[in-house]
Each structure stands twice: as structure tokens, then as C-alpha cells.
Amino acid sequence: MIRLFSVLIALCFLLSACTTAPKGPQTAVNLTAQLEKVAEVSTWQMRGKIAFRQGKDAASLNLVWKNDSGDFDFRLTNFLGVSLVTLSVTDEESVLEADGETYSDALPEPLIYQITGMVIPVEPLLSWVKGLPLEGDKFTLTEKGLVDTLESDCKGCRHWHVAYGNYGSVLMGNEESVWLPHSITLTQNETPDMPKTQLKIKIYQWTL
């Protein structure tokens, strides 16, 4: 197994971006209408920053993530914009490039585990990053009616806890708008074969 954390720590800088966090809705939203709109969002791009922590290993990098109905490109860069890790996923193949090497697999989850040692539920994450619970997930709401936390229930998700913050209004292609989170924290408690894992995503810009 190749541990990518040592590469990331050697190459990246911890950055603090000067951005103003969105304040969210002033009045309560209709949850049913909100979740229906979020479910319609299948093509999107996010720009921000992601911080990884697993046991004693930690790294923080800039993030560009483009998704088109499940096919996506996920890119991590340093403060100069140089790509350190790229992951491209289609129905046919998943390809990960890091440290001058290229790796491929039919599915992204085993590929990510091979390179980083992290178990990341990629398919559920495509919904979770939008604040959309999956069937069976247990979730709580903010006082304004948006998803605040959720506990995963999908097969292979290994009981992830997801917490949201800083929802902002994002314009959709049909000139309507939808509330999307700008702060997401995913936590998986320690297991006998895996240390505690945490992913923090700060999103500076959503483009739909």
C-alpha cells in the first residue's frame, strides 16, 4: 500500500483563504422543495479547500471538483496551482495521478484505498457534499430547515458522520436557486483496522 500523506505533507502549505462565509436563509425553507432541487443538481463544479486527517497524518490542499452525472474530475493543488493529485472517474475506469505515477482501477474506492489507505465512500459523497441525504440516512435539521448533520446507512459507508455549515444560495440553470453547503465535515470513528478519519471541505464557489 502506498501512503500518499507523506507526499502531500512534503508538498503542500496550510492556507487560510480570506473569504466571507454565506449566512444562509433568513427564514425557514421548505425541506421537501429544497431536497427536490438538490436532487436535480447533477452537473456542478466546486472550488475550495480540503483538509485530511487520519490518525497522526494530516494535509490540507486546494480543491477543484467537477461532476457530470457521476463522471467527475477531482483535483488537488498546492498554493501555486500545481496539481498534486488528480482523480478522473467514468463508468469505464477510475484513474488517479500522484507524484508522477498513474494508477487505475474499475472503481474509485479501492483505488483511493490503495494509494492513500483511506476508505472514502465516493458514490454517496457525490450526494452528501450537496447536503442531500441518501435513503436510510438519519439526519437532523438546522433551525431554518436545512440538513445539519447526517449519519450514513448505505452499504460500505462504514458509519460516516457528516456535519454541514454556511449554506449559501446558488443559482441554477433554470434561473431558480438552491441552498448548498459551503462547509462540510465528514468523520469516521476509529475501528480495529482503521484510525479515526476526518475530511473537512471548505467551498468558496459552487457553479451549477
Characteristics:
two-stranded antiparallel ribbon; 16% helix; alpha+beta; globular; 13 strands; 208 residues
Overall pLDDT metric: 86
Poorly predicted regions are 9-18
Strand order of the largest sheet: 6-5-4-3-2-1-13-12-9-8-7
For the largest beta-sheet, the strand count, sense and barrel status come to: 11 strands, antiparallel
Question: What's the Cα radius of gyration?
Answer: 17 Å
- Give the overall shape, derived from the CA principal axes: globular
Number of strands: 13
Succession of helices and strands: HHEEEEEEHHEEEEEEE
C-alpha termini separation: 36 Å
| Structural class label | alpha+beta
The percent range for helix content is 10-25%
Number of helices: 4
Q: Into which percentage range does the β-strand content fall?
A: 35-45%
